[in-house]
Amino acid sequence: MLTTPRLRLRPLTEADTDWWVCLHADDEVNRFVGAYTREQAAARLHDIQRQWAERGHGLCAVELNGTGEAIGRCGLNWWEQFGETEIGWTFARRHWGNGYAAEAARTVLAWGFGTLGLTRITAMIHHGNEASTAVARRLGFAPLREDVVLGRPCTVHALDRDDFAAP
């Protein structure tokens, strides 16, 4: 479990299926990450649990320290086809604009570069997702290449361990 002054990050499990579906049901939230049926969510969460078991990292539920309310997700995802570890974040719309994405991501980056010893982490951001691009820039990411992820064009940003300013 990772913590910040305001947030707690814990590994996602299949028990989070209903919450995952709800998070991605908002059209503004799923505009770049897609919506999920319950079956799709369960399969995705199964893959996340497998990644935790096999690689020692994966996506986390982000919860408010004071209430335990799950407000989003953030964590590391291994992309076999790219040979890259990516950081990703998605938050419920009512929690946008509070700095939670940058706060959670900075903590995940510190853990990835420090504890896990990763040398580079990418952020694959779909075209038009200006909010995520701004978070990535704030964290020190720079554009690396253009690519296609899940059938949609994106800019892959990268951050090397030596360029990361730990919290």
TrEMBL record:
Protein name: GNAT family N-acetyltransferase
Top-level taxon in the UniProt lineage: Bacteria
Annotated coiled-coil segments of the chain: none
Matching InterPro entries: Acyl_CoA_acyltransferase, GNAT_dom, N-acetyltransferase
PANTHER family cross-referenced by the UniProt entry: GNAT FAMILY, PUTATIVE (AFU_ORTHOLOGUE AFUA_3G00765)-RELATED-RELATED, N-ACETYLTRANSFERASE DOMAIN-CONTAINING PROTEIN
Residue ranges constituting the N-acetyltransferase domain according to the UniProt record: 7-155
